[in-house]
Amino acid sequence: MYMVLHLKLLEQYMATHHIFYYLIFVHLTLQIIQNLICKNLYQYLIYFHYGNLYE
Prior knowledge:
Blueprint: H1 2-54
């Protein structure tokens, strides 16, 4: 009985809060993508800068 009630509450909680989990997931995904782009861009700029210095 307790387990069924617990599952019902969990179901209701997930139904009302799933949008928050989705937003957190999207936020984290965007942060990871942003970090990758920034690192690559930074490395590219360093390479480009020093490449021009040595030429």
